[in-house]
Design brief:
This protein is an all-alpha fold and 135 residues long. 50% of the residues lie in helices and 0% in strands. The chain folds into two domains: 78 residues, no CATH class; 37 residues. It starts with 10 loop residues before the first helix and ends in a 5-residue tail after the last helix.
Length: 135
């Protein structure tokens, strides 16, 4: 995106790109991107959608309470679960399955589909589109 071959020819641009990448990926401070994202404060401190992030450090110090979970703090689950995460079980189907799942969740949260229908349709679409049987 920002780091093309011409950036390496200009030390100031190279440093700016390095600082940006660090801010996006490694900065766990209160002014890092992951902190804003986890706390839903990306837009000038306004409360937006909270979300899980890559950093357990950020999630550990963030308030992950959301109405969708009845006020539960999602990070109380995500942080311990991260300890068991690895890329060893990734498959070529993951992105397709995630896309189908997100579509069904959006329909459910928008009220256009009930929970049981969303789950049933998710399983059917995975079977139809990817040939994978689900439980």
């Amino acid at each position: 995106m920002l780091a093309n071959k011409d950036v390496t020819k200009d030390d100031a641009k190279k440093q700016a790109v390095a600082d940006f990448v660090k801010w996006v990926t490694l900065d766990t401070s209160d002014t890092g991107l992951q902190n804003y994202w986890a706390n839903g404060t990306m837009k000038d401190g306004e409360q937006g959608t909270k979300d899980s992030v890559a950093s357990s450090v950020v999630m550990s110090k963030s308030n992950g309470q959301i109405d969708l979970l009845g006020g539960q703090n999602m990070f109380d689950i995500f942080v311990p679960a991260n300890a068991n995460a690895s890329g060893k079980n990734l498959t070529q189907y993951d992105e397709s399955i995630n896309s189908i799942w997100r579509d069904q969740v959006r329909q459910y949260t928008a009220g256009s589909k009930d929970r049981d229908s969303a789950i049933k349709d998710f399983k059917q679409q995975v079977k139809d589109q990817l040939g994978i049987e689900s439980e």
